[in-house]
């Protein structure tokens, strides 16, 4: 296997309650694995985007939420979940959303993700932010956990190899709130209105939960241009 010759900077703008972000990350990972032998690697930073910043603390039933927000019937909502479940399965993710699942406010999750990228290297954890992102995806989509619950969030941090006690301190203190708000404002100002949005080298945009082949082709082309 060749050593990476070119490392692309990738900003993965997403929310942890976005199912297409699960699909997109899986496709991106598969593409990057295929590109290793071509000397193409990536430094991925997960950037915050809240799909439902005004949602109530108790969350909202997913069927009611999708119906209210998009006008989908319960039958349409179920069919959409089945389709997403299939796409997620193709990238190795076990998605178990049901009619009883809930959508949650994710601001605290984004604060922890910011902390993970900042503190992970100091704790000797490679790709700590990505590990936490994946743990949060699992907590929400596979285990149907409450993402506003500090215990759920600190458990996800622990599963990612991060210090659970420090994660709890971050949540209790409100640390990184301003940094997350500023990042959200920045990406909105740059025109990001839906996720996942994969921004490569600050200027190339790949939108949506694309399959690996789309990411692979796009990243190969970008690598040849930068």
From TrEMBL:
It holds the Pfam family DSBA. GO terms for molecular function: isomerase activity; oxidoreductase activity. InterPro entries: DSBA-like_thioredoxin_dom, Thioredoxin-like_sf. Keywords: Isomerase. Residues 10-219 form the DSBA-like thioredoxin domain. It comes from the Bacteria. This is Putative DsbA family dithiol-disulfide isomerase. It comes from Brevundimonas vesicularis (Pseudomonas vesicularis).
